[in-house]
Write a structure and sequence with these properties.
It is globular and about 55 Å long. A hairpin with a 3-residue loop joins strand 19 (about 270-280) and strand 20. The chain is about 5% helix and about 45% strand. The protein contains three helices and 31 strands. The strands form eight sheets. The protein has a five-stranded antiparallel β-sheet with strand order 1-2-31-30-29, with no helix packed on it. Strands 3-4-5-6 form a four-stranded antiparallel β-sheet, with no helix packed on it. By secondary structure, the protein is mainly beta.
Length: about 425
């Protein structure tokens, strides 16, 4: 592991506004990936998943066969050497808790436990897919006792994305299955009451029949069957997708996408009718966003202060959950969907330049001005804010890879 403590950011370009951003530490492990960082509610801890990196796709093409033979030999000795492990670290980057074989962890409000989706079967050397995650259940890991306990098992598919509801007595998680060829996605949402050992489905799986292609094309030729959603093809219906969900005070809001199939759709509909709902303490429709094209693994809403959310519909817009109305734009229109807003709505972090991002920048929401450019990277990957907006964590492949593959978690403090 590598730690760099309390450094300062590089000098800013002439004419650029600035804020005092301090680098608290960096965390990395040679040869490992880092995913899904998340702060504790009080901002004192951060949890994430790390996993041995195995080259794939174009990256693998330039490597000799001996490299992959070595990986296979290691897999025989250690079947789970590249399975995911969970790291919980403190403000100085020191590991305070670790759990094996888990995805998408979340920290309990008292900072004593982790909840995560347990990778039930070995996944070393395999790609992330619905099939390789099948059977994954939800576990709670007690960091003091170093013990894990089962919370929920899937009836089918796998369970994922768990977090402690603010009352600490319940856990919310998604029900997942294959929704895009081999890729998995959330189709349902469940709350597990830890006190009474009860499970309540908040979002129930719903499917819409696929739209079959006509028997002939405009040129009079028979359509190629592999391009159409027909009974004989792999997909005869499309599931409603649970795109996002998050607690807002004592409410739980969810963004749902109901498929609008058209001829030619195969595994995933091109368009979805998007709706924002409250699913706790009761179900109510908050906002109908309308027909949107699907975005790949990008946020469509973000929770900010005072029961407000930022919603992406063409650009980031501000919406009040209290009044049920759109609010005045907090600043210039921001059409960069990957932007991550601080909860106090003062800043947002985004990877730039848009066409070939190689670093993160922090911009002021009110003016859109660039306040700080963070260090250059080969690939910027993720950014996440603490709930008090005082800390920002970013993950990326650093500019220098002298000793081998590396992903780096950098944590910054802001005024």
């Amino acid at each position: 592991m590598l730690f760099v403590i309390a450094a300062t950011c590089p000098s800013r370009a002439q004419g650029q506004s600035s804020i005092a951003v301090k680098l608290d530490f960096k965390w990395s492990r040679l040869g490992n990936e880092i995913t899904t960082p998340q702060f504790s509610m009080d901002g004192s801890l951060i949890v994430f998943v790390t996993r041995v990196h195995i080259p794939d796709g174009g990256e693998a093409e330039g490597l000799p066969e001996s490299y992959f033979r070595g990986l296979e030999e290691r897999k025989k000795r250690e079947p789970r050497f590249a399975d995911p492990t969970i790291q919980l670290i403190d403000r100085m980057g020191k590991t305070v808790c670790e759990a094996s074989y888990g995805w998408n962890p979340s920290i309990s409000p008292d900072n004593k436990s982790l909840v995560y989706s347990r990778q039930k079967n070995p996944i070393t050397g395999l790609r992330m897919a619905a099939e390789t995650q099948a059977g994954n259940d939800i576990q709670i890991f007690d960091c003091e006792k170093q013990q894990a306990r089962l919370v929920a098992e899937p009836d089918a598919g796998y369970l994922d994305n768990p977090f402690f509801f603010p009352d600490i007595n319940s856990i919310v998680y998604t029900e997942n299955e294959a929704v895009n060829g081999a890729s998995g996605g959330a189709v349902g949402l469940t709350r597990a009451d830890l006190r009474h050992n009860e499970k309540i489905r908040l979002v129930i799986k719903t499917a819409v029949p696929a739209a079959p292609c006509p028997p002939t094309g405009s040129d009079g030729q028979t359509q190629v069957s592999s391009l159409c959603s027909q009974v004989g093809n792999p997909t005869a219906s499309f599931s409603q997708l649970l795109l996002q969900f998050a607690p807002v005070g004592n409410e739980l809001v969810a963004l749902l996408g109901m498929p609008v199939p058209s001829p030619g759709d195969m595994y995933l509909a091109k368009n979805y009718d998007i709706t924002l709902l409250s699913v706790l303490p009761e179900t109510r429709r908050i906002l109908s966003i309308g027909k949107e094209k699907m975005a790949n693994d990008e946020d469509s809403f973000q929770v900010v202060s005072d029961k407000r959310v930022m919603i992406f519909s063409g650009y980031w817009k501000l919406f009040s959950l209290t009044t049920g109305k759109w609010l005045t734009d907090p600043g210039p229109r921001n059409m960069q969907r990957s932007s991550m807003y601080s909860p106090d709505l003062k800043y947002y972090a985004t990877a730039e330049p848009i066409d070939a991002p190689d670093h993160f920048v922090i911009r002021q929401v009110a003016t859109g001005k660039k306040l700080q450019s963070l260090p250059k990277m080969i690939t910027p990957l993720e950014a996440v804010w603490s709930s008090d907006s005082k800390r920002l964590a970013i993950v990326g492949v650093p500019a220098s890879l002298e000793k081998g593959y590396l992903e780096e978690l950098s944590v910054f403090s802001l005024p």
